[in-house]
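BUG-280 | component: ligand-complex export | severity: low

The export step for glutamic acid jobs runs without errors, but we want the raw record kept on the ticket for reference. Input record follows.
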Amino acid sequence: MPSPRLRFAPSPNGRLHLGHAYSALLNAEIARALHGEVLLRIEDIDPVRCRPDLTEALIADLAWLGLTYPDPVWRQSARMSTYRAALDGLWARGLIYPCTCTRREIQAAAGHTRDPDGASLYPGTCRGRPVPDAPHAWRLDMKRALALCPGPFSYTAFAPGAPDAVRVAHPARWGDAVLGRKDVPTSYHLAVVLDDAAQGITHVVRGQDLEAATDLHVLLQRLLGLPTPRYHHHGLIRDEAGEKLSKSLRSEALAALREQGVSAGEVRARLGFGDRTMSG
Ligand code: GLU
């Protein structure tokens, strides 16, 4: 059994808020219970929205909370050649195709079916077309992928203090998902699957908003010959009384709280971690 390894994987497109703090603290707490470690991964594939100064601020905010991570901190922006090689491999196997469609074109051509994120399911307009000169994204050919890997798909869901559960995954509901964007040779889905494997992640602890994406990730892992980690998708953060934190508080930046004189210990307590996350 490899030793337990988790990751906290924020995108530096804004300041860290309480929702991030909860996820980071929960990762630390679960890692401690498993006698494992947590790595920090900066998910900065978006060259416009992700800024280096926000990455530095994020690392400082985490340190203020009492969370430090082994060096070197992994940055996805430095991994583009690896992502491109993975796309090349999928293209050589006929599993992706170039797509020039704009969001508006997709909306006009798509039916009513939506993917789990609420976006129109891609109608397949560009499937089978040659590689264009114009900027293009790369889409998974879901039908061919499922012909190659027919499933069934499942993964292990774990939760602290609860028995493991098998979750059935339905990747087809994502349709021909984007694996390479027009501006960078990856998408969140491709990069996260490659990096979880490359970093030897055994346990993924992340928000429930990404639970549906795991269905697609399990298929990509199968196609790429990568292991599937165990997953825990945590719910919305709650305050110490067990109430859901109000949306405004949840999105409160840690930096703003610090400026108001709130201490890191108070933030941890407020999120239900007390001071036990600080030992070890
Ligand atoms: N970068 C993603 C986010 O900030 C998290 C990705 C993940 O944990 O898989 O929402």
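Assignee comment: Attached the raw record above. Residues 9-11, 43, 192, 206, 210 surround glutamic acid (CB under 6 Å).
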